[in-house]
Amino acid sequence: MKTIAVSAALCASLIACSSGKLPPESQATTVLQSSAGIYTGPLSTQQKLTLLTRLDGSAYLFYQSASASRPAVDDVIVVRNARQANDGKYESTQATRYRFVQPRRAMPVQVDIDFSHSPAVSGFISVPGDSADNVAFNARPAPILGEAPTLASVAGLYSGTANSLHGASAAQITVTGSGLLAGMIANGCEFRGTLAPSSGVTAYDVSVTYGGAPCIDANATVSGSAVLDESKLLVALPRPDGSDVVVFGGAR
């Protein structure tokens, strides 16, 4: 069991970057049923991407090292809401990128995704005022797309890394067949909660309540999403005010 970040010029090679802006919001819809799901592919930073898009317009983009043997997360983008036109063009209206490599920071970003040529998906993540952090990607539906998420398939003990803007620590999460979740971070922070299959997408809804000190968010309850890829589990739990996020990447 395993324990426990380019150039805007690339935009020209991606359909999403040349597709223009979405029509006015009055002509847009919530995320289309055909676009909701899990996608994987390469980022222009030579990292790999796991993208989860949900029917309510929220999304999670996990950046991971392509060469790392463990499922640790380098960055995550949390899209709190977005809109999508009927032609498949998706545009975030509120999104934050959390960077877990130095310098650790949270920054507002714009996420544009083109689902119009699905199953091939392309996208561009732009950082206002900092083009050096712009990232392009291509992705396709993950093999798990279409497989119903079940508590039986996710149950187990996962060991890996918990990341936030405050640092990284080894962590473990246990999920039971009844959907109960418990975990511990190496600094002594314990948390408990629930995990349940999401409606309309092959992912999981997670709710966690942290214990007291030394947990950074002592006694707080947060909600987020989880993605299971065979034996690897990715969990993102953003603070309600968007100031930070706890991301777990582990394997059983």
Detailed description of the structure:
This protein is mostly beta strands. It folds into two domains: 8-141, Lipocalin, CATH 2.40.128; 151-251, Beta Barrel (Lipocalin), CATH 2.40.128. The chain contains one helix and 18 strands. The protein has one helix at residues 151-154; strands at 28-29, 37-42, 47-53, 59-65, 75-85, 89-99, 105-108, 110-114, 121-126, 135-141, 156-164, 167-175, 180-185, 190-197, 204-210, 221-229, 232-238, 245-251. The strands form two sheets. The chain has an eight-stranded antiparallel β-barrel. The radius of gyration is 17 Å and the shape is globular. The model is unreliable at 1-28 (pLDDT under 50). Residues 1-18 form the signal peptide. Keywords: Signal. This is Lipoprotein.
